[in-house]
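Whether sequence alone determines local backbone shape is best considered at the level of individual chains. The sequence in question and its structure tokens are set out directly beneath this paragraph.

***
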Amino acid sequence: MDDEVEALRSEETVNRVKLQRLIQELASKAELAEVDRDIAKNELDNTLIELHASTGGPFVTPKEEEYAHIKERQRYLDLLDARLQLVKAQVSFLRQTGGLEQWLQSTGRPELNLPDQPPNEPPNRP
């Protein structure tokens, strides 16, 4: 019995370490996604400036402008996705370590008083 408990503890420790590494990796990905989005936003801004400038430089087509908008929005979505994955991993870690409830209480948000289960009323059928 002690061997089983020790094996479970060891497995839990390994899982925590893996999750901590995943969180670090996801945090780095989120930072890179933010940099990529900033670059795409700067490229969009430059494209808009070129489009509206009356210089004799290269002409920016509406298609190029639209592509710059799409690229910037895609990088923004990538950033949101990276941040979501990071938060999910962080919440999972808090759950594993028993810190989720403490974190929720520290945010100062009121508890939701939701019913444990929906009422067990049969649907009305004619």
User: Anything to note?
Assistant: The helical segments are 2-52, 62-97, 100-106. Residues 117-123 have pLDDT under 50 and may be disordered.
